[in-house]
Amino acid sequence: VLGSQAQESGSRIEGVGMAGAAGGNGGKGTGVCKRCGKEGKVMQCSKCDSAHYCGTECQRADWKEHKKECSRLAEEFMAYKLGSAVGLNIKGSYEKSLKQMQKLEQVQRQRTGGAGGEALTAASLVEVGRALSLQGRYEEALEKLSEGLKLSRKLYGNEHEDTADCIVMLGVATHELGRYDAALALYNEALGIQWKLHGHNHKQFANTLGSIALVHRRQGRYEEAIEVFGEALRIYKERLGAEHELVATTLHNMALIRAHQGKVLEALKGFKKSLRICKKARGSDHPSVAQTLNCMSTMYLRLGKHQKADEALDEALRISERQLGHEHPQVALVINNKSNVHLDLGRNAEALEGFREALRIRVKTLGSDHADVGGTHLKVGLALAGLDRRVEAHASLDEALRTMRCAQGEEGQGVADVKYAMAGLFEREGGDERARELYAESARVFARVYGPEHSQTQEAVRRAR
Known about the structure:
This protein is mostly helical. The protein is 75% helix and 3% strand. It has helices at 56-90, 94-110, 114-134, 138-156, 161-176, 180-198, 203-218, 222-240, 245-260, 264-282, 287-302, 306-324, 329-344, 348-366, 371-386, 390-408, 413-428, 432-450, 455-464; strands spanning 18-20, 29-32, 39-45, 52-53. Strands 1, 2, 3 and 4 form a 4-stranded antiparallel sheet that branches. The radius of gyration is 26 Å and the shape is globular.
């Protein structure tokens, strides 16, 4: 390394050292020297990773010219690498994406370069937070996003779009931790900023309304969620047209609420409408099409239409594997739901095989403490119970409970789902007192999440007596 600060004499180079062109570890690669044009072994500027030199002599000689563009090139290279890491997130390579983003964050912190460099640091922090959220590591995500928000406020002020975006991401992580009132406060803060910047008929404003509606859904406040989604839908239709992909997304989310309410036919109708728009807007092979087909399969399963459920899942699996690869959380979701069909038909051995494959993918891509992993441990336990492998079933349900507590806390809906399943297993084994305790605990959470009149709540209450 030549030095970290330039002196007026030019004998030291500002923020620039020499690193191996093939990876920054001091090794040499091949290329063309920027100064003399000589081909052969070269090393790269350690700040921008773009300029290559045959040695320190050429690097020093070129510094007067290179320093004019070095900071800009460094920021462009970091932005490119950040975009690459975001692309890995989209493909479902969450762990690989997170490692790349964390490395970028560390490098960016070590660099200087004014507001441009700080802007990239802020962006890196937000994307690390997003990646951590996707892996279910919400507490760690909050730490990064809070730091990113502090830097965004410093750079842009309180009433800037990037600041609002960061607040929304903080809201997402807070929401997933079950801190619904805090999440709503963050979303409403972002909404206020977006109102001042764009007015109440802007796409970003509608996006945040959608996030608020999702909190209402988690709280079991279904009609409030439908009302807020309806306002977002109005904005999307007015600003973007009735056939826009965001219209399809909102219809999909509204259909999910109807499904939670037990209004299966109404939900299925909503999913079908969403599917038609989504295919037109995004194409028949888009992953969003697979997501809607997946939800439709669940409705068919509730209606006892197993063949239709299987057909929808086969199409969803084909799209998901083609577009995302087999090792993706969405593929795991489809495999999980195909296994639900087997479970419903009493084909427990086939169900167990599918659930275990879904579990393997989810642990690999989301980490072992994610709520989706807990949900799959629950399904594995149910399949084992159906095979009368009760010791293994208890072990799987215990692991499901541990995972759900880690992901959601004691009052999470997933924890209640596991306790309900555990109660059923104890009931079959004659442990009626323990079963009633677990049914009562799950009923209390279901009442908060779904409401006291929901069929799931009523069934848990009945069994607890």
